[in-house]
Amino acid sequence: MARDKTLIVGNWKMNLNMGEASLYVHQLSKMVKPHRDVEVILAPTSLVLQSLSLQINPRQFKLAAQNFYWRDQGAYTGEISASQLRGVVQYALVGHSERRHVFHESDKDTRAKVQAAIRNRIKPILCIGETAFERSEGETNDVLHDQLIGGLANITSEELEQVAIAYEPVWAIGSGQNAVPADVTAAARAIRSQIKHLYGEKAANNIAILYGGSVKEDSAADYLALDEIDGLLVGGASLDAHVFNEIIKKAHKPASAGKE
Ligand code: PEP
User: Is domain 6-258 annotated with CATH 3.40.50.2020?
Assistant: First the structure.
């Protein structure tokens, strides 16, 4: 995905019911000023995607699915497909650490979902990151390498233009323990170097890389200031519309007002 906008994604996980979601969007829409250099993406429970798609101003917010099944239709009781989400969401999280670690999704599942999203004109945000153990063993770059290869297998250079990568160290998610900016830069460089190896230099320079993991109002600007980082994936801190708006505000760079 091109790096012309800063992406700020709010992953609500399994929080907020229908009434709460609608109220939240009502409140946030009064606060957020649309800017051409910022894309605000809400990832609510699947239950409210349809109703929020009618409530939001599409210039102000985009929607993302937190999850979906990779087949387009069939006898898969309880599942929602990317083809059913088509036209409702513009983005989808794929390979989130909670999908990998709580629901045991493999790289094979992740790759099938990346392909299903692209097939249905939904931009996948491929989440990758190491566990605390892997980090302590010095395996971070190997994990990023394996999850990138696993998630992007069979994706063409042209299709890669629809993909964003989120670097989300598992130990930082929901823990209050965020990665230091220097480590985030190092991980993003490792990701770009792997993309360069797979797809060439232009693709590596062009792909959007987000950081996620316990981002709060007071740490957001530190990550957004990093040259390698093109946005944030925010979980807990996105659940309060006021706090999320403060994070969104930090993404707009008046210095790049040429884009306005
Ligand atoms: C996430 O859900 O991807 C996430 C980063 O959560 P949190 O911000 O709560 O760590």
Answer: no
